[in-house]
Structure formats: C-alpha cells, structure tokens
UniProtKB/TrEMBL annotation, chains A, B:
A GO biological-process term: DNA repair
Source organism superkingdom: Bacteria
Residues the record marks as site: Transition state stabilizer: 104
Residues at which Mg(2+) binds: 87, 89, 102, 121
Subcellular location(s) per record: Cytoplasm
Protein name, per record: Holliday junction resolvase RecU
Catalysed reactions listed for this entry: Endonucleolytic cleavage at a junction such as a reciprocal single-stranded crossover between two homologous DNA duplexes (Holliday junction)
Cofactor binding annotation: Binds 1 Mg(2+) ion per subunit.
Keywords of the record: Cytoplasm, DNA damage, DNA recombination, DNA repair, Endonuclease, Hydrolase, Magnesium, Metal-binding, Nuclease
GO terms for cellular component: cytoplasm
Function: Endonuclease that resolves Holliday junction intermediates in genetic recombination. Cleaves mobile four-strand junctions by introducing symmetrical nicks in paired strands. Promotes annealing of linear ssDNA with homologous dsDNA. Required for DNA repair, homologous recombination and chromosome segregation.
Essential cofactor(s): Mg(2+)
EC number, as in UniProt: 3.1.21.10
C-alpha cells in the first residue's frame, strides 16, 4: 500500500523494506513469530542504542534501469531489478573486532541445506576471516524454532565437500549442535547472538 | 540504454549502478578523470584481489513500492525511491581493523563544505570510532585534483562547531593539509588510501 502525505508526496518508511524472505509460521511467542531478519534487526538496534556494537544490514542491491525526475519532487525509479550481493547481509564492529555474517532459515528439521548459500558469500566470509574478522552464519530451524550461530569455517568445510564423492548437500543438525552456539530467545534483545561471540573472542585471545 | 539478451531478458550489469554523483571535468590523466567513487571501487577491487583488504561499497538504499512478478522471468520493480542511508558508503576490514568511511567531492578550491555530509553519517562514524574502528572521510577537491584522507574526529570537530557563534560551514583546505593525509594518484591502485591507514594504525599501536 502506498501512503501519501497531504501534499501528495509519497511517504517512505525509513526502516521497512520489501524483502523476498518467505513468512514463517507464527509461533505463540511474539518474538519467535518474527522473521529471523527482523529479529536480528531489532537486536542490532538494541546493541546500537546501548553502545554495545554497531552492526547493520546492508541494503538489498538493486539495478536501476529507468528513473523519472519529476519537477519539484523526488526521483522515481520506474524500472529496476533485484541483484545478487557480492557480500553477506550483515557487518559491523563489536569489541573492536570486524564482524561479518549471513542469516538464513530453513523449514527442515534434521539438517541445514547448503543451497541457502551462494558461492560468493562463502568466498567473502573466507576473505574476511583471513583478514582477522569474525565470520559466521546465523541459521534458524523455523519448524523447531531453534537458532544457531555457526562459524564460517564449518560452513566452508561442508561447502567444499559437497562436490566430492559423498556429495552431502546439507549440514546435519547434530553437527551444528556440536560445533555451533545455540542462541536463546529473549525479550531485549530478541536474539542475543553477541554472547556467542564473547566465547569465540575469548578463545581467540587465549 | 537498456540492453536485451536474444531471449528478450534484460541484461543486468553486475558492476555498474546508476548513481547520482555529478560528472566532474575530465583531467588529462585517465585515472584522475574518473569519479572519486569509481577510483575507490577500482582500488578496493585491487586490494581484494591481492588479499590486502576486504572493503566494499554498500548498495544504495532503495525503497521499493511496487513489484511485478512476470511468469518465467525476474521480478521487475515498477516504482521505487532513493532513500538516505543510515550509515556511510564504505566499510570493511584491513589488518584486522574495522574500517568505515564516506567519500565526497567538491569543486571548491579553498575549503570543504560541511553540507556534503549528513548528521547520521557523522553519528555513525562516531559510534564506530568509539567501538575501536578506524573512521574517516576521503575528500576530493576536483578542481585542484587533490584527494585527502581525514579522520572523522576532525570532521566531528567542525560539524559540532558549525552551529556555534562563529558558524563556519566548511573545513579550510589548510586545516585538511595539516591534519589529513594527501593521497597520491597511482596506476594500480588508482588511490592507495590504505597507506595513510598504516600511519594511523602505527600511531595507535605506539
């Protein structure tokens, strides 16, 4: 729905953006019913407000083809297309460390399908990791309502193996339970994923 | 111009994006004639390829209002608007440090107008700086063909002063010459701005 100001100008919300993420079944607990991306955006807003971390979601890359410049009002994009990003969706800084991650959900119950990721995301996380950044994925099993943080090295391992003879195309939940960090739902922030980073940074500094 | 594939699908370039930056007078030296943003993107591609740093420009935030989903082809955005970003344009990682900056040009010869920046960009850089990030602006005096890197603390200083009694609305070139780092044009990378960061990081570690 388009909302207009009384002067006829279009109201543009500074926060919401149309995304292609499918809606997941709403859960009894309001926060659990939110989309993973919204849960993370809310958590990031909390971290920012409290001076804990500065982490933002990058805008969706859009290829603009045609723009109208009407007199006395804002430029209107008349034709454009969604593009694939060459990086991940989220990055920022926490405890002086560069943070970079991607967030994805699945309705599967036993494993996380690798097809949720793109080659360039894996490459990007690897590049950042080699530079000393903290890189990971936040994955949500929406049917189980369980969320995990898994360092990108583990994802890379499965990513590279998928083209070999055994051809496993997903990461088993049991592996994620063992090598990842489960993130509990809370009120504020909705998903306190930085807690897991404290452990990771702590281990690095040992 | 729109280019179509033989199958009628529209060709979308993975790199170029329509930007609102005005073209500057072209200089004799090809690299100098490029827009600042392109010079930086080229430099970042070089740094990435050589494994020196991972720094990307964020996509322009666009508010999508109307999307068509034609059968058997990509979604077409039919109405959208440019939005203001809540962060800066560039961020990434270099030597394990979080890097965050904004790039701007002016045709002025004696000072850099503060109106080139937005309040939220100043706030964002301050937040990142307080977290331990390296935050700065890369400013180009296009008429003089001189480019400087200036740490965001200096910009903040002038930004806050502009509303006081003396009301200076720009940073004098002489101040930038004294407190910033001049970046020389090169072939590859076009603008080797990480050199200045080596000095900054070096001073931090002292």
């Amino acid at each position: 729905m388009t909302i207009n100001y009384p002067n006829g100008k279009i109201y543009r919300s500074p926060i919401k953006e149309i995304t292609k993420v499918k809606k997941t079944a709403s859960a009894s607990h309001a926060k659990r019913g939110m989309k993973l991306e919204d849960q993370l955006s809310e958590s990031n807003a909390y971290y920012l407000q409290k001076g804990i971390a500065v982490i933002h979601k990058k805008p969706t890359p859009i290829q603009v083809v045609k723009v109208d410049y009407p007199k006395r009002s804002a430029a209107v994009i008349k034709e454009a297309y969604y593009r694939h990003s060459s990086t991940t969706d989220f990055n920022g800084i926490y405890r002086g460390k560069y943070i970079d991650f991607e967030a994805k959900e699945t309705q599967n119950k036993l494993s996380f399908p690798l097809k949720n990721f793109h080659e360039h995301q894996i490459t990007h996380m690897k590049q950042c990791y080699e530079m000393g950044g903290i890189t990971f994925v936040i994955i949500r099993f929406s049917t189980l309502n369980r969320v995990f943080l898994l360092e990108s090295q583990h994802l890379s391992l499965y990513w590279e193996k998928q083209h070999s003879t055994d051809q496993r195309k997903s990461i088993p939940l049991t592996y994620i339970e063992e090598h990842g960090y489960e993130i509990e739902y809370g009120f504020r922030p909705a998903l306190d994923y930085l807690k897991a980073l404290d452990t990771i940074i702590g281990n690095e500094n040992k």
